[in-house]
């Protein structure tokens, strides 16, 4: 008798449940967790590049190719987590509207499937060829044998299945190596999870502190905000700056000896 009443009560609770503003804060925490996972994925990407550089130095070209074939897996994984995060953000917005949202699971699944369909409809070139991590991988391996040269543009990437219609072409993504705030090389570069803009850590953190914890992104035209915890250590950019500095340094040394 009592148990029936309990079941009815539980059913009622479920029926009456609305995801509302009360829950929004917990969703924020979940978004923060996704950021941490994304950070780990990017760390894995950098370690993959380090391993590829070592193997290229040892003339293990086949092993490098095998590593390169796992790059799309990382890109897919990163996309999966960032689209999950965006979905949660959308649900959070919905929960803040009056009345909240009735069926969070359905909202989530609808949105995630929409995202997945969009991503799957992209060609390999769009998904991987234009990806920053893929071009960074190729550039890093290229620089082992061509230390002072930029990789030729439109370097073709072999397809896993021996090539179908859309060959993966790597377009080298040209990102500035200087911080817009200091106008010198990036130092300790940090990138926003949200808008993907990059700044040297010290000046942006100083700005955030000076403006009581939140500041509009200093990149011209960007309407996103920066606060502590909304950015990650951009190890890919750090590597890129390190390489550029080395090239400049070597060019200087050459000039010096040429003069003598
Ligand atoms: Zn921005």
UniProtKB/TrEMBL annotation:
Q: Per its UniProt record, what Gene3D superfamilies does this chain match?
A: 1.20.120.1010, Zinc/RING finger domain, C3HC4 (zinc finger)
A GO cellular component term found in this entry reads: Smc5-Smc6 complex
CDD domains per record: SPL-RING_NSE2
- Give the protein's recorded name: MIZ-type zinc finger transcription factor
The residue ranges flagged as biased composition, category Acidic residues, are: 150-166
Q: Where in the cell is it found?
A: Nucleus
What is the scientific name of the source organism?
Answer: Phycomyces blakesleeanus (strain ATCC 8743b / DSM 1359 / FGSC 10004 / NBRC 33097 / NRRL 1555)
Region Disordered: list its residue ranges. Answer: 147-166
Can you name one GO molecular function term for this protein? SUMO ligase activity
Does the record bear Zinc in its keywords? yes
């Amino acid at each position: 008798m009592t148990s029936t009443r309990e079941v009815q009560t539980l059913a009622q609770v479920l029926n009456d449940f609305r995801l509302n503003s009360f829950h929004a804060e917990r969703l924020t925490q979940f978004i923060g967790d996704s950021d941490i996972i994304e950070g780990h994925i990017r760390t894995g990407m950098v370690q993959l590049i380090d391993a590829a550089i070592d193997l290229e130095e040892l003339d293990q070209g086949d092993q490098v190719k095998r590593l390169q074939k796992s790059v799309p897996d990382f890109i897919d994984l990163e996309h999966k987590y960032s689209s999950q995060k965006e979905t949660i953000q959308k649900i959070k917005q919905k929960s803040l509207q009056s009345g909240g949202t009735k069926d969070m699971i359905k909202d989530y699944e609808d949105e995630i499937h929409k995202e997945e369909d969009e991503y799957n409809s992209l060609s390999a070139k769009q998904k991987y060829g234009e990806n920053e991590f893929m071009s960074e991988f190729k550039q890093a391996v290229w620089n082992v044998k061509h230390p002072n040269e930029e990789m030729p543009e439109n370097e073709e990437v072999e397809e896993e299945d021996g090539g179908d219609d859309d060959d993966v072409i790597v377009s080298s993504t040209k990102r500035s190596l200087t911080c817009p705030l200091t106008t010198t090389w990036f130092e300790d570069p940090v990138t926003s999870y949200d808008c993907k803009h990059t700044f040297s850590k010290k000046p942006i953190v100083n700005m955030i502190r000076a403006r009581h914890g939140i500041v509009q992104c200093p990149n011209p035209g960007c309407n996103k905000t920066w606060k502590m915890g909304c950015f990650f250590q951009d190890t890919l950019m750090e590597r890129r700056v390190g390489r550029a500095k080395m090239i400049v340094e070597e060019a200087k040394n050459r000039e010096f000896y040429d003069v003598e």
